Amino acid sequence: MKPLAILFFLCSIVGLQAQTYEIGAFVGGANMIGEVGRTNYIAPTDMVFGGIFKWNKSKRYAWRATMLYGNVTADDAKASSGSRQDRGYRVENSIFETSLGLEFNFVEYNLHKLGPAFTPYLYTGVTYFRYGYNYFNDIGDFVDANQTDGAFAIPMTVGMKYRINQFLIFGAEIGARYTFTDNLDASNPVKLNVGEFFNPAFGNVFSDDWYVFSGVTLTYTFGRKPCQDCFE
Predict the structure, then answer these.
(1) What contacts 143, CB < 8 A, 6 or more positions away?
(2) Which residues pair with 7 in a beta bridge?
């Protein structure tokens, strides 16, 4: 084997084992958009927190995984719609999600270069979450059915990140999740056997719910610089 080929092979191995990683925490606020409460897309009502991991494959993108837990509350009394205020429904739920996807940087983001680094970014991928599956009874009272269900969602996140120093990165983001369920707000409990004497569904049963996690991140970077010079 030629010396140049050997060097290329060794650098490839080092590059695979020496990518830059980030691990840290996410904390912020959560809200949902459905048939109950306000329809504002960014209106946090409760806390959300969890962990985040990133594998920076290049200056332009990173693979990302998160595990987040948050509570959401929707209250008709705070809605701008008069009909919702008169109805007076109130929903509480909790969400535990895992997400995997790709984070794309708007500008080149080199963590191995001295000095500050800043970029806006977009993130999307696949999210799976668990939530409480509840309903409203025939007199309009919220009923905790003591059941959970799972669904997939598509995350659509915009954010920014800034490297504080060699090891710490601060970020802030707003992430909307389009879910494939219509019962995050207890408005369409088709999987519960509660419709024998009354119809528990209300609102637009053809429109699925959304929820939004907005917050900040602080991550710690580790991993050596890849052997990029071998590929030039």
Answers:
(1) 134, 135, 136, 137, 186
(2) none
Six-digit token pair at 129? 């979450």
Query: HEC string of 172-219?
Result: EEEEEEEECCCCCCCCCCCCCCCCCCCCCCCCCCCCCCEEEEEEEEEE
Q: 18: closest CA among 56, 54, 61, 51?
A: 56
Amino acid 68: pLDDT: 98
Summarize pLDDT for 137-165 with one digit per residue, the tens.
999 999 999 999 999 999 999 999 999 98
> Which positions of the chain have pLDDT values less than 70?
1-19, 114-115, 224-232
Beta strand pairing call for 168-179 and 148-163: antiparallel
* pTM of the entire predicted model: 0.85
φ, ψ at 10 (rounded to 5°): -65, -40
Q: DSSP labels for 93-133?
A: EEEEEEEEEEEEESS---TTSSS--EEEEEEEEEEEEEEE-
Cα angle, residue 38 at apex, residues 78 and 69 outer, rounded to 5°: 105
